[in-house]
Amino acid sequence: MSSFAERLIRWQRQHGRHDLPWQGADAYRVWLSEIMLQQTQVSTVLPYYQRFVASFPDLPTLAAASSEQVLAHWSGLGYYARGRNLYRAAQQIVAQHGGEFPRQFEDILALPGVGRSTAAAICALAYHEKRAILDGNVKRVLARFCGIHGVPSDKTVEAQLWQQAEVLLPAQAIATYIQAQMDFGATLCTRSRPRCAECPLRSDCVAYQSDQVALLPTPRARKALPEKSATFLLLCHDGQFLLQQRPPSGIWGGLWCPPQTDDLPEFLQTHGLSAPHPLPPFTHTFTHFKLHITPLFLSLAQKPSGLAGKWLSLNAALHAAISTPVRQMLLACRQAHFTEAEPAPVDSKTPHNTDY
């Protein structure tokens, strides 16, 4: 066992996280947690994970559900392609593996939404296989410890990091070591203000010894985000709101959303609608662009013809498969007293850049 691995494992046993609900669980729950944790913090994932496994305790149950049920449980968690891929993967496992989560690395890697690091983490944590991982936390730790410069997502730099990840693997206690890498990067060797004074690796950490901790890993040059605008009509009839399902791919793919228009006067004229009431505009930041949202409310005496979708009460709409901005628009209607108050569902804080 390398000195690096020994120290990480010792640190994990003393200071790491030991009460996460997916630790020591079967492969299905490990897989679910790994997908949810992609680009999302543990504190955000925990309530979603608990609700998800309560409704879908095993693979056959998940595969037998509807995509809308799955996305409703994903609502607010962001990066919705993860939820769509999770559902597709569950159906693939039922069809190809009899409902049993596969044990072979290649079979796991073939699942929708699973990459090399995620497949390796599942094999290591669920099956105790000797596999290296390279998520964002591990990239940061290895870049600092080994003194590897360059943007970690660049292919040549990533190849160096993979090589180091493989070299440093221990022969034993692989699940503890993999969890240690995740916990260490998330709680000690953090992106900003790492706690180097408490680090068991600092004696031979290249970044620490050369006073380059703040410089590694090399950040990617920031570019100004493109900006877009969108207008949404919150049409309300008899306490119910019209929601339309988005296309299966793209922004908020498969989720439900108020009607969107690029030409408000034409939309109102086409459907015989009067002037709507403005709600507070806001901006939602995605990974690759900013969306300036203009929500408009309109109370209707009768349902307009020619508009597909479903009509839901405010509470039912808030429980549906919706994105965080749509939830914000619906709650704004209640705050503006455009609809009767109803108890809102519990929702966790959602980080920016996640509503895909």
Describe the structure.
- The protein is an alpha+beta fold.
- It is 43% helix and 12% strand.
- The chain is built from 15 helices and 8 strands.
- Strands 1, 2, 3, 4, 5, 6, 7 and 8 form an 8-stranded mixed sheet that branches.
- The radius of gyration is 23 Å and the shape is globular.
- Mean pLDDT is 93; it is low at 341-354.
Largest sheet: 8 strands, mixed
Integer average pLDDT: 93
Question: Strand fraction band?
Answer: 5-15%
Shape verdict: globular
Secondary-structure topology with pairs:
Blueprint: H1 3-15, H2 27-36, H3 42-55, H4 59-64, H5 67-74, H6 81-97, H7 105-109, H8 116-127, H9 136-146, H10 155-167, H11 174-187, H12 206-209, E1 227-237, E2 240-245, E3 256-257, E4 260-261, H13 264-270, E5 277-278, E6 282-285, E7 290-300, E8 310-313, H14 314-319, H15 324-335
Parallel strand pairs: 1-7
Antiparallel strand pairs: 1-2, 1-4, 2-3, 2-8, 5-7, 6-7
